Amino acid sequence: MPLIAIIFLALFVSCPASWAQYDQGYSAGTSAAQSIMSEIGDGSKINDRIQVPLTSDTGSLTTFESTYSDPNDLGPQSFNVRLTSQSSDAFLEVMAQPGPTGDINTLIVRQDTDFDDSFDAVYTSPVIASGVCANGIISCNPGTWNGCRFYEWETGPGETVHLSQVGDITSLAGCYCVNSSCGSNLVWSNMAYVLKDLGGGIVGTIQESSPDILVTKVSTDTVSIKYYGQKSSSAGIDQGGAQMYFSGSESPQDYYNPQCGTLPTGQEVLSQQGDPSSPYHQIRRAYDARLNPREEKTCAISHTVSIAPRGGLTLSTHDTCGSLNLSGCALNREELCDYENKNCVLSVLDGNATGLSPICPPVSMIDNDTGLSYVVYATGTTVTYDLNSVSYILASGSDLWWNIHRDYLCDTGVSLSADDALDRSNAVSGSASKIGNMIYYEEYDPATGLSTSRSSELPDVPNYSSCEMACKVRKISSNTQAGAEANTWDYQNSISSIEVIYKACGVYRVCPVEPGETILQDCTCTDEFANAVSHMQVMEDAANDMICAP
Q1: Among 365, 366, 405, 413, which is disulfide-ready with 374 (CB 3.0 to 4.6 Å)?
Q2: Is the pTM of this model over 0.85?
Q3: Which of 107, 99, 112 is nearest to 127 (CA)?
Q4: 136-139, strands of its sheet edge to edge
Q5: Does the CA dihedral 13-15-20-23 come out positive or negative?
Q6: Where would I find the H helices in 80-228?
């Protein structure tokens, strides 16, 4: 009753509408429902119309008949679509573990290339990873940034992945250093971020050679990341194996169980707690923002180099951060990107420094007038260039990356409270009552603490049945079943038997009697629980009385 009261108050008190329009809407809705229910009004129709086409090679999905007049309507249209297919528990697992120097000493990739629920390919990186890229790794002397070599992910026979050495960093993208030469404990502090970059690069490489592989779920733990998926080209249910849904679960119905069924809820929460981009963190941030609303301010700093009119290089800076009033603001997110404003690395996430910084490819420039060739580097504190094998400093200071994108969260000084609105809502829902076409409720004024009695007239609301109307019919059927010992005729005087059937009456509340059937009970709210229990008890007693003889 309180829910009904609130709904009607919102519809008819705050925004009065024409009752004639209400009646028209009710009639249109009833007509549409009756039309649709005539097509999927019982279990067999749902099975034939929806379930079978979605989960097998039999049949196609078909749109419903139009519930309104449209001269351009082409009628029901058929099409093929599949929801499920056989999938491995995880078709890809990437494990990474750093060593004492901060380099990733252990990097293992396991694959299920044929999606048969078992890993059939294992690749262990032959080199350490001193830097991580979006499509590969950088391997240097342990704990240093010397003697670096560059590797890109590639696929071989059977879509197995491996690292292949490339000439220089220009073949890689989105790289950053992770060993101790760049900071302390970088891999452990950013494990979720590092695993996503490693796994994302491998998955991208696999999908490049096999675009029909679909990733349906990603999960991480302390040192590994797993990718669940399936091949869209072979979508379908394997009747002899596990059926995996797009959620990555074999039993998605557990998501609707209040206790979450057999789903690893606790494991998922722990996994998402370590992932700042996860729904767990997003919801938590939304809750914090409700309690303390803040304003978001964004800005960017970019640097470009060009040939000066009289020769040499010049550095230009475009800075929108300097003009912002950042009083009461805190840096929430910062991305550092390459010269083309791509392949960005997160240096600050959710107000916390990640300790990661990009390793941007050098920028090459040629002075067409002099023929001189420059190679320019940006390291965050300096912009340098090489000319004729000699290095020069073009600029030094802070924020000397090619492109910087920053998001700030700033205090607004506003404190929002929903207490008054909740008090008013509770007063209405707790006092609402309906008598005939009138609804009565108490309106609470938080400013005075007083309540005022209110009422509003409602349109006629049709009565709804509290159950699905059903009828009971009887028909004569033939029973000629045969078993190993005998057939029905050997135990009965006649093969004819009486069959009792329960049928849904549908939206028109008419018993769908077929030829040869007799109505025992017309459409009503049937309760046959006691009858069913009695029959089950008789069957149990009969089973207990049976004696099996050799």
Answers
A1: 365
A2: no
A3: 107
A4: 161-166, 149-155, 136-139, 131-132, 176-177
A5: negative
A6: 186-189, 191-209
Q: Using CA atoms, how far apart are residues 232 and 237, in angstroms rounded to an integer? A: 12
- Closest by CA to 60, choosing from 69, 51, 71, is 51
Phi, psi of 450 (to 5 degrees): -105, 155
Q: Does residue 359 sit in helix, strand or coil?
A: coil
Q: Write down how long the chain is.
A: 550
Contact status, residue 376 vs residue 313, Cβ threshold 8 Å: yes
Region of residue 235 (left: phi > 0; alpha: psi -120 to 50; beta: else): beta
C-alpha closest to that of 526 among 501, 494, 492: 501
**Rounded-to-5 percentages of helix, strand, coil across the chain:** 25, 35, 40
> Each residue of 350-365: pLDDT tens digit?
888 888 888 888 999 9
Q: Is 217 helix (H, G, I), strand (E, B) or coil?
A: strand
Whole-angstrom Cα distance, residue 258 to residue 176? 43
Q: 137: exposed, middle or buried (C-beta count within 10 Å: 0-12, 13-18, 19+)?
A: buried
Q: Any residues with CB less than 8 A from the CB of 349 and at least 6 apart, and which?
A: 193, 276, 333
**Is 325 a residue whose pLDDT tops 50?**
yes
In this predicted model, what pLDDT tens digit does every residue of 405-423 receive, in sequence order? 999 988 887 766 777 888 8
Residue 23 Cα to chain centre, angstroms:
39
Helix (H) or strand (E) holding 389: none
CA torsion, ordered 271, 199, 358, 156, to nearest 10 deg: 170
Identify which has the larger pLDDT, 148 or 419.
148
**Cα dihedral across residues 155, 156, 161, 162: positive or negative:** negative
